[in-house]
Design a protein that fits this description.
Length: about 180
C-alpha cells in the first residue's frame, strides 16, 4: 500500500513539473513574440526618422542611428540597396571615401567582410534584406546552436514609397 501511494505521489509530482515546464515554455515564447513586436514598432519609427534625413551619408547617419537605437543591447545596422553595410552601432563601418588613409580603408574593408559574414551566418539572412527592400518589414526569430533566441527585424527605409536602404535591428543571443 505504501509503495502504491509513493508511485501515485511520484506520478503526480512528475505531471505537475511537466505542466509547469509547458507553462514556462509558453510564457517564454510569448515574451520573445512581444520582443519581436516591439522591435518591429521601434524599427518602423527609426526607419521613418532616418528616411527624413536628406542624405544617406554614413557620417551623418551614424550619430543619428546611435542616438535613435533602442538600447545598448539592440544592434542597429543600415544596409544599402546593394547589400553594403553603411552604418553599424557596434562597429565603425561606412563606405570608403577617397580622403581616408590606406590603413583606415583596409580596416573598413576587412570589417565589412566580417559584418556581411555575420549577417549571413548569424543574425539574419540576405533574403530578409531583399524582402525588406520590396517594402515589407521582416521579423525573424532565430535560435542559435545552444538554444538561445535571437530576435531580428529588417525594416525598409522608405522615401516617397521607394525603399532606399534597410534598417536591421537585432538582439544578442539570449537577450
Amino acid at each position: 500500500m505504501r509503495v502504491c501511494a509513493f508511485w501515485r505521489l511520484s506520478l503526480f509530482v512528475f505531471v505537475v513539473l511537466f505542466l509547469a515546464s509547458l507553462g514556462l515554455l509558453s510564457f517564454h515564447n510569448a515574451l520573445i513574440d512581444a520582443r519581436l513586436a516591439r522591435l518591429v514598432v521601434q524599427g518602423d519609427a527609426i526607419a521613418a526618422l532616418l528616411a527624413a534625413d536628406a542624405s544617406f551619408e554614413p557620417e551623418r547617419m551614424a550619430p543619428l542611428l546611435r542616438r535613435l537605437a533602442p538600447g545598448p543591447r539592440i544592434r542597429a545596422r543600415v544596409f544599402a540597396r546593394d547589400g553594403v553595410l553603411l552604418v553599424d552601432t557596434v562597429h565603425r563601418v561606412g563606405r570608403v571615401s577617397p580622403s581616408r588613409g590606406i590603413w583606415s580603408m583596409a580596416h573598413d574593408w576587412w570589417m565589412r567582410g566580417q559584418i556581411l559574414a555575420d549577417r549571413l551566418a548569424g543574425t539574419s539572412n540576405s533574403l530578409d534584406l531583399d524582402e525588406a527592400l520590396r517594402g515589407h518589414a521582416i521579423p525573424v526569430r532565430l535560435t542559435v546552436e545552444d538554444g538561445e533566441p535571437i530576435v531580428s527585424v529588417a525594416v525598409p527605409i522608405r522615401r516617397s514609397g521607394v525603399a532606399l536602404a534597410v534598417l536591421l535591428l537585432s538582439t544578442p543571443a539570449g537577450a
